[in-house]
Amino acid sequence: MSVQQNPTRLPCGNRVLDLSRPHVMGILNVTPDSFSDGGRFRQRDAALRHAAAMVAAGATLIDVGGESTRPGAAAVSVEEELERVVPIVQAIASELDVIVSVDTSTPQVMRESALHGAGLINDVRSLSRDGALKAAADSGLAVCLMHMRGEPGTMQQSPSYENVAEEVCDYLGERIALCGAAGIAPEKLILDPGFGFAKNLAHNLSLFKHLDALLRFGLPLLVGVSRKSMIGQALGREIDERLYGGLALAALAVAKGACILRVHDVAETVDVVRMIAAVQAAE
């Protein structure tokens, strides 16, 4: 497959994301059990304050998630996910100048979030749940497709690849085709290689080294490695000691063509992006 021309803009509901520069997506988990900040932002006011702080720090997208996808995470009912996510999406969309992304695989959550101001569907299961493709197509929103094998509860049980970068590309290529058949145009798609999802440390490092393989699709790339175990395993660091490793990967991701960095530490990552831009703009 030849490398396609990258689009310059991504329509996200009533907003447009300028793809001529990298963006920082702030993570907002409204769950009790996310691996890094579970339980801190479940209440509306706390969530809105944190979202506002991330926007002030330079985030152009806020990713709201109501279902933990850490290894071994418990399943969440549709009703509970709706109760967690939709009020927060609505509050952020109505009060902050930012694109709201909803981190969900659940069709009902996609539909309700779209009605309440979301601009992007960020699905770790790449719209594979029953009804998800149609819900995403009906919403008209942009969609991020991520690579994962299995389910969060079992995905880290002996993952195996012959060539991880090529197998990730094969999977995402199939999901792009299915989206097209469902009426979701390529111009509305983002790709996420899924670091830490059904991949061990060696897989994650190899995939990062060959990240530019995904550029063949000509679609924006989202990279999410903030505080993840690949940093902890590579550096011997606990969750609260992974900032510097994450910033190194953020810089490397931008150098390899990533357009969106999904992070917990927004201000620090924005500095990375701005510093790279300053060098690139020099004579």
Present the secondary structure layout.
Layout: E1 9-12, E2 15-18, E3 23-29, H1 44-56, E4 61-65, H2 78-95, E5 99-103, H3 107-115, E6 120-123, H4 132-139, E7 142-146, H5 164-182, E8 189-192, H6 201-209, E9 222-223, H7 229-235, H8 243-255, E10 260-263, H9 266-281
Parallel strand pairs: 3-4, 3-10, 4-5, 5-6, 6-7, 7-8, 9-10
Antiparallel strand pairs: 1-2
Helix pairs in contact: 1-2, 2-3, 3-4, 8-9
Structural class by helix and strand composition: alpha/beta
* DSSP strand count: 10
Q: Strands across the major sheet, in which order? A: 8-7-6-5-4-3-10-9
Q: Give the N-terminus to C-terminus distance in angstroms.
A: 34 Å
Task: Write down the secondary-structure element order.
Answer: EEEHEHEHEHEHEHEHHEH
What coarse outline follows from CA principal-axis ratios? Answer: globular
Beta-strand portion reads: 15-25%
Low-confidence stretches: none
The radius of gyration is 17 Å
The total of helices stands at 9
Global mean pLDDT: 92
Helicity level: 25-40%
Main beta-sheet strand count, sense and barrel state: 8 strands, parallel
